[in-house]
Amino acid sequence: SAIGIWVAQSPRNRFIHNHIHDFYYSGFSLGWTWGYGPADAAGNLVEMNHVHHIGVLSDGDGPILSDLGGIYTLGNHRGSVIRNNVFHDISARVYGGWGIYLDEGTTGLLAENNVVYRTIHGGFHQHYGKENIVRNNIFAFGKEQQIQRSRAEKHTSFAFERNILIWNDGKFIQGNMRDGEAVFDWNLYWPMARDFRVESLTFGQWQKMGYDRHSKVADPVFVDPESGDFTLKPGSPALALGFKPIDVTKVLSQAPVRESP
């Protein structure tokens, strides 16, 4: 049940260019306060990490645990950033094999420019929290669903903008999206060989609810997504929506990186 890197009540740490893999539980776990009470794990930076085979090992062993993620967070995270990471091949025994998992009370966190693929229960999940931003990420090939919000609340749960989602199994989203607040816009969705649906809603009906008014359903035209190459080809419709291409070359390289001053 060990975690690759765990932070309980410590702020302003920097975790840059690590390779974390083959754990039965989470790759990262940040925060140790459930809900909206006082918490100290704010202002942390998780950047350029390669996290894979979490929950299930690379030799196929597992899964044996549930409720886990490539990165898991709790409580106040004002100023925390999850940026330019690669999370893939994440599973769980019953539930909770998520890529980026914002658990109870996660607040004020930014997740951007991440590539998340081959997760059993979705690339992104927010149990409950507020004022988080999820933008310019690629979420691919969630088996059960692609994203999830478990609890609807009266405040804004998160903004989900300029992301690319591609899938060939499962559904787009899990959870009640008819109640509570969340922002979805400028995203590109590609359900491959099926129609876009949110429960029984078509994409047009989803838009009439106020979600994804500028978003599109179209092939993002990746180089080889099923082999993990999410490089966009020229002319991708994602570019017209403002998506900024994600270069993971340095993330996957073993060569040391030098931090910007």
Q: If you had to describe this structure to a student in words, what would you say it looks like?
A:
There is one protein chain. With 261 residues, this protein is mainly beta. It is built from 3 helices and 26 strands. It has helices spanning 203-208, 237-240, 249-252; strands spanning 5-7, 14-16, 19-23, 28-30, 45-47, 50-54, 68-73, 81-83, 86-90, 97-102, 106-107, 110-112, 115-119, 124-126, 129-130, 132-135, 138-140, 145-149, 156-161, 164-166, 171-174, 181-185, 188-190, 216-217, 222-224, 229-232. The protein has an 8-stranded parallel sheet, with no helix packed on it. A 7-stranded parallel sheet has the order 1-4-7-10-14-18-21, with no helix packed on it. A 7-stranded parallel sheet has the order 2-5-8-12-16-19-22, with no helix packed on it. Strand 25 (222-224) and strand 26 (229-232) form a beta hairpin. The protein is globular. It starts with a strand and ends in a 9-residue tail after the last helix. The model has no long low-confidence stretch (mean pLDDT 96).
